[in-house]
Protein 1
Amino acid sequence: MAFGAARALRLIKARSGHAAERANTGAAAAHHEHYCMQLIRNRDYEGFLSSLLLPTEFRRSVFALRAFNVELAQVQDVVSQKTIGLMRIQFWRQLVDDVYADNPPHQPIAIELWKAVRKHKLTKRWFLRILDEREKNLNEKAYRNIQELEAYGENAQSSLIYLLLEVLGVRDIHADHAGSHIGKAQGIVTCLRATPYHSLRQKVYLPLDICLLHGVSQEDFIRGNSQKRVRDVVFDVASQAHVHLEHVILDDYLNKIRKVDFDVFHPSLQKRNWMLPLYLKIHSWRKIY
């Protein structure tokens, strides 16, 4: 095993320590909750705002789930070698197993997940689907078609939504159907939003079949090309998100990208929407999603 990979494994193992019995002490519990909340606030601001709209009794468990998701989502971006990425995924896979064995490591997200799983009887299968999809994405290959991109959305994003619904006490086939559509749309939007960032890393994940249809190469995106044929690719991909279910946060991005004629590199798309908290609150009052 390479030195870098071995060192990463030691660092990952160092984070563990079976001390769940200390999880409910006042200071420790507050620290664990704050850790998850700050992680989401820094890495998933829209998810953070959405969580604040939920009733207080559900927020802590939701923060735990979103923190777990954030950690997995960033594995691909923070590791330089696939081997290290696989080791990080394995760490989180083992963590989930330990949580369900009532033996979580003394790590903030693990402790908070353990509490959420015990409180809401969360389904382990959804955690495993997220892990499997994140591990699969370490191959860093472009999606061959829109169906593969939708499969990513279903496995990585919809699975999280199913867990969030379970926290809220919603176990309904119709809610799951809506969650499936939202997750697929979110997966597509996430891919679009990350395109400028990925392009800087010489990576392109947009569906190859749509790129070929418009005569666009991966090099066009890497160079930041904004010609019409490139925008046509973005239009087709964004349109598929509309085919599923409109969601307030996703709809905000889709509206903005339409206003700039589907130029995925437009600077306005990289700016945070400071009106989003008010926008979300209004929709919450009106019960519009």
Protein 2
Amino acid sequence: MSRGGGGRWGSVSVELVMAECAGCHGVCGFWKRVEGPEERRLLELFSYGLMALGAGSALLLCFIPMPYGRYSTRRFGSLLPARVAWALQELPSLLVPIGLAACGGEAIAAPANRVLLGCFVLHYAHRALIFPLLIREGKPTPFVTFVLALLFCIFNGYLQGRSLSNYAIYPPGWLRDPRFITGFIGWLLGMAINIHSDHILRNLRKPGETGYKIPRGGMFEYVSGANFFGEILEWFGFALACGTTESLAFALCTLFILGSRARQHHQWYLEKFEDYPKDRKIVIPFLY
């Protein structure tokens, strides 16, 4: 009787060990093995690299227009359909954080981490799954532009997802902290401005019309890059609510790159339309 019981428990132990070993060799097992101080330091270095990338891109865009949309050109590779390119390039920022969160981590069980990661995922659920379906005859995307955007979304998806899943630790009651509340409001307002501004741009032309028009209404009454302003506000609000180096790096990178793109748009509008409102700023209302 004793031997039979021991054999049964021994069999259970073997099965547990085998299950654990199987997990060690899976995708989640890999992320569990690399977790620790070294990866934490790597995330910090990646964050500084993201800031430098944004600053460098802003400088480069002063001399080379961003090849997308109305500026698309075959000099940067074959042209891809706008809807397909946009959905595929944005998808990693949705799937990578979800995958990292599914693998678990010490931090992801906390309500604050789940809410903050949910904010990030919600934005990219819209950008990857909904926004592409709303595009109306969008200009094709050069292959190089598509690849660069894809790599950025993989990189940033890992950076934000890994930080919030495993390393960002918040004090009890963080969801009631004024920093979180202010940041969350900024994130929500920025996302609303971004979506509304995109809606205005999509509906500038009536069915059958061609050519470009001056966008009016909403934040376009104040800045040429209203959609960019919304996204900048969104990610700075997110950074305030998160309070992490990774989220701040993303916000600054967004400011550098989208600020440059807004300046490109603003200059194009001024050259294209003689009656373009001269009191409109580029991307920051009343300031720039």
Protein 3
Amino acid sequence: MFSDQNFFNYSLLSLYLITPPTIISLLFLTAPYGKHHRPGWGPTIPPPLAWFLMESPTIWLTFLIFPYGNNYHNFRAKILMSPFLLHYCHRTIIYPIRLFFSTHRRKPNTESPSVRKSAAGFPVSVALMAFGFNLLNGYLQSRWVSQYADLEGDEWFWWRFAGGLVVFLSGMYANLWSDNMLMGLKKEGGGYTIPKGGLFELVSCPNYFGEILEWLGWALMTWSWAGFGFFIYTCANLVPRAGANHKWYLDKFGEDYPKNRKAVIPFVF
């Protein structure tokens, strides 16, 4: 017999089970999009469309699931779900739009092969894998908050929410600022350059560092195995990617690339 609790538990277990294979595979194989684009991964679609489609489950699935939870009318549940939706409204809608315009405002006659490579299609196979993860994760986060979180009996709720929100918003600011800097460089055309200023002086991928901070804040706010699992998976996904980006910068710019920069965690890695 179907049990919602069992389905949730098995889904949560799945999140933890896919994390080790993810980090192991990404240590040896870099996902082929952006500066790492390469042929051999099947058909592609425009990157803005890929980001919109693969991130969208976190929004529409949340709005489908949330009204059917016992916490639906609880103000704490709604305020707790807001940061998650804030991030994904940006990632699903605003980011693809900005990515589209940053790509199409370049002057075609000034584009180098490396710029054209960065604007290449996004592999459908990779987008489908991301879509599947977002289905799983969107379900887990929204279902936990709307149904299984004991919000009324949690005396520390507001303290954890406030502390986690500070971490989350700090990470979101770093993520948005870094994306804005990178998009600005794309608009200029002429090939990849060394990003400078702000957190770029400390790490090669401050956008990834910001996103890691966001989901650390989310884990603190939710104080749940679902939130913690999402944070761990984010690290498993983004830390190897940041390492690959860091190596790419070193290979491309050689002695010109700042030697004191780490890949993603300032002063650590």
Protein 4
Amino acid sequence: MAVQAARRAFFKATSCSKQYVAFAKVSFASRLNGHGARHYSADPNDDLRVRHLDGEDAGIVVVGINRPKAKNSISKNLVKMMSEAVEDIKKDNRVRSVIICSLVPGIFCAGADLKERSKMHQSEVGPFVSKARALITELGNLPVPTIAAIDGAALGGGLEMALACDIRITSSTAKMGLVETKLGIIPGAGGTQRLPRVIGVSLAKELIFAARVVDGTEACRLGLASHSVEQNKSGDAAYLRALELAREINPQGPIAIRMAKLAINQGTEVDLSTGLAIEEACYAQVIPTKDRLEGLSAFKEKRRPYFKGE
């Protein structure tokens, strides 16, 4: 991976609860493109770029949406490429975390590609929506932590994609909303179910009924995002904060992280008694692992543990 000098030493980020100052080693554009400047292509194979970071960042996968002319809208090709990427990630035990982001300044994902949709026969619309819904469901079911880095507008299906991630980080200039009622339809890829689970039923109804769009700061206040960071000149502040978080996750026990995610996801859908039973079952999965023994040894020897996911 090409590494160039940092374009700035520090960036200032504001979360809901405290201030963050983090060192930015390499720019977003250079990580995804291999150099400092963003570049785009009309080749549909470039609609999505998947980068497996290396060195100390090995285990972090960055999935970058790259449809600048279509505002990263969700097309048949993008659904196909993202589905393949999610399937590959699911099968790769070396993956520790995933960042979903945009390579296009000022936009995360504008939702469905309405130009493409308008050319579809009515009989094609249902199957396409089903595939998009299945993609977002599979994204939500990935066994590793997923972070949506929202540096621009995330509307409709774009926000539904972000809602399927475990954690959302926004820039202060981001715009987020489920705006489908403006088109006479409703969110169809999980928005009516995931948004209430994230921010509560009443607020979710208000946002969906009014097709309201909120900025990154408001999204953080509502609980729609975990952190809202001040946007920088390069337009990738949320990505950099997401990368910082992925680096915090990276050294932890990978099997433990997967089991913790499974316990939380399944436990929040049931009553407390059943949830505690789920936690107990997940805990039992980490007991026989080599990672658990390594964690104990490292604690005893006062050193950093080296987990292998075994």
